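Hi V.,

You were right to ask for the full record rather than a summary. Here it is.
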Amino acid sequence: MLYNGSSVDRDETQTGMEGRRKHWNIQFGIPNKTDWYVVTIRDGKVWGETHLPNELDSMPENYFISNVKEFKYDTPKLLKKSQKITKIYPGDTFAKGYNFGFTKDPKKNFPLVMVIGWDETKKSMIYLMYNAITGELEEKIEREQYKN
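Predicted structure:
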C-alpha cells in the first residue's frame, strides 16, 4: 500500500515554482509487516526500485493511504494558498525551489499534502501540511537548518 512520497532535489536550478516537481521518491509498505519499498521517479518515469526487508517496525494499516482518489487538493493550488497565508520562499542552495510531499495523519485518518519552502533568511525550512480532502491548513512547522 502507498505510504508517502516526497519530491527530490536533483535540479541545478530552482524548481517547483508552479507547484510541480519532476523527481520523487514514493514509499510503499505492507500493513503489519516490516517490508518497505521505495520507487524513485525521474522525469515522469520509474528510475529505480528498492526493497528494504525488515527495515522498519511493523506499521498498522491506518498509516497507509488507501485511496488516492480522496485527494482533492494538489500542490499547485496549495502552493498558491501557502503564499497567501504566510511568507514562504523558494530555496536556493539546499532544497532548491519549493518541495512537496504527501503522507497520512494516522490519528485523524486523512491524507496530508505538504508544501515545503523557506523563511526569508533561508535559515529555517517551513512545512505547511494541508488536509488533502478539504484543503485546510492542519499544521505549520518551522525548522531551523542553519545556525550562524
